[in-house]
Amino acid sequence: VGVRSFVGPIVKRPVSLRLASTLVFLESSKDGKIVQSSLSALSAAEQLGNPIKALFAGSHSTKAAEQLKLGFSTSLVDQIIVANNEVYDNYLPEAVTPLCLELLKDNEFSHFVVASSAVGKNFLPRVGALLDYQPVCDITKIVDSTTFVRPIYAGNALATVQCTQEKKLISVRASSFPACGAGSFEAPIIEAPQVPISELGAKWESENLVKSARPDLGSADKVVSGGRGLKNKETFDKLITPLADSISAAIGATRAAVDSGFCENSLQIGQTGKVIAPDLYIGVGVSGAIQHLAGMKDSKVIVAINSDQEAPIFQVADFGLVGDLNEIVPELTKKLSK
Ligand code: FAD
């Protein structure tokens, strides 16, 4: 349905100027703070080069819109649309989708951009299905306004996708785009059209957030990740926590470590966990299975500590320490703490 992958030279098509305009959906927390992945989605939207309208939904939308104007620098956002209605709080796809459909129904927007977050992944397919457009998901690069790069096969191959649909619905892998920078800009804040919302068919019950003083794994610039080589939860806590503390890093883990009960599953990195690209990733007792690499191989500097010098993690590591983690990690922590 209008999206095709190909290998070979990219044929650039001119985009109809009438349609060259982008709507970007930005998530914010209840206190109006814009979430990091949405700031990356906004900077990706800027790369498209079109005028941008930013959309906030939820009872905190105006606060978030003010924070965007006063806290961030963007030259292309010419309007901020706010849908100040508590029905959008928690971003239930049943509620958010009709709002997006209302804004996307005519020809105003050529591109609709969301972060590839839990929220974006939840409602973008629904918007696509109802508009009969196929979304281009989890893009890591914008080649031009119709051509995008996205990982396939758990990150083992990159597909260059040309989207010939009139509207391009795009979700953005946050770790592949820098968050838009600090600054301020002027743009009018306008109310979104009222969308009649009948029976949603779904109800928000509650959320159970893990509170931590540590940097958030998804956006931290340093991550220490523990694997099955740590053998048990006690060693995980005894070695990984002080090492992470010594460099103010977030803690991550492999699925094997999570499944073995060493730590909670929100720390899982990989194909079925979080995708991260910190400045520094330290893997301790991590073999480097492809499903784990899918979540961390874009890290800027990778350090691996493993007793098996043939472990696949060393193929992607910038620095490798071959040896027993029980000896190496305490020594490293001591040196880093100085
Ligand atoms: P292992 O592969 O067992 O590696 C442990 C390593 O520790 C070994 O290399 C060993 O040499 C080293 N070691 C042992 N003792 C010591 C010591 N004393 N000192 C130093 N080193 C030591 N995995 C993920 O991580 N994330 C995912 O999202 C994910 N999704 C998956 C999805 C699917 C559909 C499937 C099938 C699998 C998925 N996996 C995922 C699992 C993945 O295939 C691997 O099983 C897992 O990543 C292995 O974790 P590990 O490196 O901790 O364990």
Automatic annotation (TrEMBL):
<feature type="domain" description="Electron transfer flavoprotein alpha/beta-subunit N-terminal">
    <location>
        <begin position="22"/>
        <end position="208"/>
    </location>
</feature>
<feature type="binding site">
    <location>
        <begin position="254"/>
        <end position="255"/>
    </location>
    <ligand>
        <name>FAD</name>
    </ligand>
</feature>
<feature type="binding site">
    <location>
        <position position="228"/>
    </location>
    <ligand>
        <name>FAD</name>
    </ligand>
</feature>
<keyword id="KW-0496">Mitochondrion</keyword>
<keyword id="KW-0285">Flavoprotein</keyword>
<dbReference type="InterPro" id="IPR014731">
    <property type="entry name" value="ETF_asu_C"/>
</dbReference>
<protein>
    <recommendedName>
        <fullName>Probable electron transfer flavoprotein subunit alpha</fullName>
    </recommendedName>
</protein>
<dbReference type="InterPro" id="IPR001308">
    <property type="entry name" value="ETF_a/FixB"/>
</dbReference>
<comment type="function">
    <text>The electron transfer flavoprotein serves as a specific electron acceptor for several dehydrogenases, including five acyl-CoA dehydrogenases, glutaryl-CoA and sarcosine dehydrogenase. It transfers the electrons to the main mitochondrial respiratory chain via ETF-ubiquinone oxidoreductase (ETF dehydrogenase).</text>
</comment>
<feature type="binding site">
    <location>
        <position position="306"/>
    </location>
    <ligand>
        <name>FAD</name>
    </ligand>
</feature>
<comment type="similarity">
    <text>Belongs to the ETF alpha-subunit/FixB family.</text>
</comment>
<dbReference type="GO" id="GO:0005759">
    <property type="term" value="C:mitochondrial matrix"/>
</dbReference>
<dbReference type="Pfam" id="PF00766">
    <property type="entry name" value="ETF_alpha"/>
</dbReference>
<feature type="binding site">
    <location>
        <begin position="285"/>
        <end position="292"/>
    </location>
    <ligand>
        <name>FAD</name>
    </ligand>
</feature>
<dbReference type="Pfam" id="PF01012">
    <property type="entry name" value="ETF"/>
</dbReference>
<dbReference type="GO" id="GO:0033539">
    <property type="term" value="P:fatty acid beta-oxidation using acyl-CoA dehydrogenase"/>
</dbReference>
<dbReference type="GO" id="GO:0009055">
    <property type="term" value="F:electron transfer activity"/>
</dbReference>
<keyword id="KW-0813">Transport</keyword>
<dbReference type="InterPro" id="IPR033947">
    <property type="entry name" value="ETF_alpha_N"/>
</dbReference>
<comment type="subunit">
    <text>Heterodimer of an alpha and a beta subunit.</text>
</comment>
<dbReference type="GO" id="GO:0050660">
    <property type="term" value="F:flavin adenine dinucleotide binding"/>
</dbReference>
<dbReference type="InterPro" id="IPR029035">
    <property type="entry name" value="DHS-like_NAD/FAD-binding_dom"/>
</dbReference>
<dbReference type="InterPro" id="IPR014729">
    <property type="entry name" value="Rossmann-like_a/b/a_fold"/>
</dbReference>
<keyword id="KW-0274">FAD</keyword>
<dbReference type="InterPro" id="IPR014730">
    <property type="entry name" value="ETF_a/b_N"/>
</dbReference>
<feature type="binding site">
    <location>
        <begin position="268"/>
        <end position="272"/>
    </location>
    <ligand>
        <name>FAD</name>
    </ligand>
</feature>
<keyword id="KW-0249">Electron transport</keyword>
